[in-house]
Amino acid sequence: MKSSSFPSLRVEPELREAAESVLRDGATLTSLIETSVRETILRRRVQEEFIARGLRSREDAERTGIYHSAESVQSELQRRLDARRKSVLG
Q1: CA 56 to chain centre
Q2: Which residues are within 8 A (CB) of 6 and not within 5 positions of it... i.e. 6 or more apart?
Q3: Burial state string for 29-60 with b = 16 or more CB within 10 A and e = fewer than 16
Q4: Is 17 part of a structural domain of the chain?
Q5: How far is 42 from 8, CA to CA, in rounded Å?
């Protein structure tokens, strides 16, 4: 597949300097921008999925009339976390 380009991006000199200051060995501004775009796309997709799950959960609760208190959810999450810590840390 043939590659394509993003539009040219004009930024303040301070932003360019800040970007250049965090480049790692062998990295380029282009690679930093590409990585940033990929990570932003992933983060936004994860956020969209999170919101969609929440909306489905709300609709399910409204449909069934079954709701869970924040306290019970937090207790269950804490129980799972404690069990996982015990299995990993011993």
Answers
A1: 19
A2: 33, 37
A3: eeeeeeeeeeeeeeeeeeeeeeeeeeeeeeee
A4: yes
A5: 22
Write down the pTM of the prediction.
0.72
> Is the alpha carbon torsion for 78, 84, 88, 90 positive or negative?
positive
Number of domains in the chain: 1
Give the integer Cα–Cα distance in Å for 34 and 39. 9
What pLDDT tens digit does each residue of the chain (90 aa) get?
Answer: 899 999 999 999 999 999 999 999 999 999 999 999 999 999 999 999 999 999 999 999 999 999 999 999 999 999 999 999 999 998
Strand, helix or coil at 45? Answer: helix
Question: Which residue range is the domain that position 72 belongs to?
Answer: 13-89
Domain presence at residue 2? no
How many CB atoms sit inside 10 A of residue 16's CB?
Answer: 13
In a domain, 18, yes or no: yes
